[in-house]
Amino acid sequence: MKKYFNYLLLIGMIITASASAQNTTPIVGKVWSLEKANAWYKQYKWINGADFLPSTAINQLEMWQADSFDPETIDKELGWAESIGFNTMRVYLHSLAWEQDKEGFKKRVDQYLAIADKHKIKTIFVFFDDCWNKQAKIGKQPEPKPGIHNSGWVQDPGDPNSKEEANFPALKKYVKDVMSRFKTDKRILLWDLYNEPGNSGKLTSSLPLLKSVFTWARSVNPEQPISAGLWAWDYKELNAFQALNSDVITYHDYEEPQWHQRVIEMLRSHGRPMICTEYMARTRGSRFENVMPLLKKENVGAINWGLVDGKSNTKYAWDTPLKNGEEPKEWFHDVFRKDGTPYKKDEVDLIKKLNDIK
Predict the structure, then answer these.
(1) Which residues does the UniProt record annotate as the domain Glycoside hydrolase family (predicted)?
(2) Of 143, 147, 145, 149, nearest to 131 (Cα)?
């Protein structure tokens, strides 16, 4: 019954977007034409890969701060990604890391891109995020809480920071500085402006920042497309704005393939290329073996959550903590163990087959 209800909500969202939202939803700047968006997508082989955080980082700050930036681990783990044919990583930035050390931050971004490019991997960068811990602090990050999914992940710019427009001028400088530095960089596939706006109970209080970040991005006019992924089908106002202002449709889906197929069919009505920027939660029925072949068949980009088991603890499910830190009966996310061996050999064999890797 819940899935049927969700399906009706999804249909309602699409009908709203196609029939009336054009008249009520502000269009920020010049969205790419359908022809330009589809021509861009045709340049690339099938886009597939993972949301990437090195195993030695608990969150975005530990990844990007100078004291904990870990190019050796990044190089090693992206090598494992390359070995199975992954060609794209989705990577979160953080405004506090930029604020602390603007030039150093951009140099580390460039260093990351050089490593990824060596492994023939494009990057999707994410700016803002409404998920998990409300406040972030510069400096040494906390140790993982045993058995708890993403115990140290932090929102950006945080709560209530994201709701307070007094913060927007500084955030505008951050977005425009980073995008201007890399606006023509061929190593960047796409800019993902805001991850899951409205999550953590924020709902439409995130809409002003969402609208603003699209305005700032359009003013930079990058060569790469911009997007913000749809993720909650009952957030109609947010969904309409995201869908109608994105050059490429990105979305999240952690459900089994029957539901995922319906999502693809509905979003296809926009006529734009599609990339699923989060999927694969084994205990929810979203697996490599049943969803990844579907995405390839439908020519939808496939970015699963998690590459290597690490400090983020995303092998544990969102809602099933194991506080003693024992191995879960089945991993929720992630592909590789810390030593580079696959969690499931049959999964990486399938990924390699789908990517024509012998």
Answers:
(1) 84-307
(2) 149
